[in-house]
Amino acid sequence: MKEHLALLRPHQYVKNAFLFLPAFFALKITQWEVLASVSLAVLGFSMLASSVYILNDYRDREDDRKHPRKKHRPLAAGTVSPRTAFLMMGVLLACSFSIFLYLDLQAFFWVLGYWVMNILYSQGLKHIPILDISIIAMGFVIRVTVGALVVHPDIELSMWIVLVTFLGALFLALAKRRDDVLLAEGGNKVRKSIDGYNLEFINGAMMIMASVLIVSYISYTISPEVQTKLHSSQLYITVLFVILGVLRYMQITFVEERSGSPTRILLGDRFIQLTILAWVVAFAVLIYF
Description:
mainly alpha
């Protein structure tokens, strides 16, 4: 049972919290019906994500056996059979698609698009430098889009949330690739797309993404349109927590050199946890109270 659970990668489900963002910014997160619908969508997206992880693990099982950490994954280690893995994937897909067909038809088509995109990613797009991290970032944009549709099909998804989500996800994806580059330099077998990266490129790209991300977030908080919509002219206060979070993640990446798994960092780093909590509390107080 432990190995089957590991195949689902439940620690990755924290990414699906992005589905709550549209409801939070639309001032609807306190409505029980909305909260229930988005929570159900998070469950459905988590099932979908697990099916994607199973497919990726199956295709990468030979390469994963040569990786210092990924060799312990169930399919690479042989602790779960491919037949069982595909059965689990089919059940997860059926449950996920059923949930989104129930919630909203447009959301279902976005979820279907996410699945197709990840099939193409698994089939070879993940080996194309720059395109690989862009697809990862687009996955987060799809998450917030689905979250908005679940709240209400006609809800207007702010260009700011799309922009900041994409930039933030791209920043994290670059940090993950940096870890792969370090492993490759140490003589370890990693994905083919690493041939298109080196430390100089990734370090520079991360600096650019961090700068553009912070500037975009500042622009969001001081936008007259946003201030009017959210009934607050003090949103700029939350910029402090965004800067602290970015700096801490850069410290983990450049100083501690352990950026291989963003979700494990989030689940294990107290500084980042407190920074995110402070941002959520500050933003909630400003726009809800």
